[in-house]
């Protein structure tokens, strides 16, 4: 199984990215192959449909998404929506790269929770024909602190992450092993 994680903040040490790195460590412990794209370290030019000669970072993103069995997108919540960096990245991705794949949405907010960003992200995923995981992860103030190793300090957050990841992994397995129907 291959999972591509996209950290959708262009801010260094963003809590949404730290949370995604924690998720990556859990996946690696489960011996799941991971591709991690951090948009703060791999910036993308502003997408325009007038230019289809994509920057090498955009080509890397597209290939990583195409080769994945499942996808995890994280975003900070900015003004009730996803980050511009993540939206721009997803604008590079065509439906055929996401269709039928399990997608987990993860957010971090300066307020209680990033619910608006998650619903917007799930709408984007639906429009790319991805299969939204019925669970999601959102952290807000009080739960967005981490130990030196990147583990959330809040026990409830650690349990929630593990529970949601288990659900996502099961969904990804089920979707990536669909039997081929011949006519």
From TrEMBL:
User: Which superkingdom is the protein from?
Assistant: Bacteria
Q: Which GO terms describe its cellular component?
A: cytosol
- InterPro entries found in the cross-reference section: Flavoprotein-like_sf, FMN_Rdtase-like_dom, NAD(P)H-dep_reductase
Traced from the root, the source organism's taxonomic lineage reads: Bacteria, Bacillati, Bacillota, Bacilli, Bacillales
Which residue intervals define the domain NADPH-dependent FMN reductase-like in the entry?
Answer: 1-142
The molecular function terms in GO held by this entry are: FMN binding; oxidoreductase activity
State the family named in the UniProt similarity comment for this chain: Belongs to the azoreductase type 2 family.
Q: What is this protein called?
A: NADPH-dependent FMN reductase
* PANTHER family noted in UniProt: CHROMATE REDUCTASE (PTHR30543), NAD(P)H-DEPENDENT FMN REDUCTASE LOT6 (PTHR30543:SF21)
A Pfam family hit: FMN_red
Q: From what organism does this protein derive? A: Shimazuella alba
């Amino acid at each position: 199984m291959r999972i591509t994680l996209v950290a959708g903040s262009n801010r260094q040490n963003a809590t949404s990215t730290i949370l995604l790195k924690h998720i990556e460590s859990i996946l690696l412990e489960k011996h799941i192959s991971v591709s991690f794209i951090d948009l703060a370290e791999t910036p993308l030019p502003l997408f325009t449909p007038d230019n289809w000669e994509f920057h090498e970072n955009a080509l890397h993103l597209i290939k990583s998404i195409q080769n994945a069995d499942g996808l995890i997108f994280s975003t900070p919540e900015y003004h009730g929506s996803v980050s511009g960096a993540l939206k721009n990245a997803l604008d590079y991705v065509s439906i055929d790269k996401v269709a039928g794949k399990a997608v987990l949405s993860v957010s971090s907010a300066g307020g209680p929770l990033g619910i608006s960003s998650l619903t917007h992200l799930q709408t984007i995923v639906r429009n790319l024909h991805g299969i939204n995981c019925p669970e999601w992860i959102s952290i807000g103030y009080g739960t967005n602190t981490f130990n030196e190793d990147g583990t959330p300090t809040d026990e409830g957050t650690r349990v929630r992450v593990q529970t949601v990841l288990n659900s996502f992994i099961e969904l990804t397995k089920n979707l990536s092993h669909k039997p081929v129907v011949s006519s």
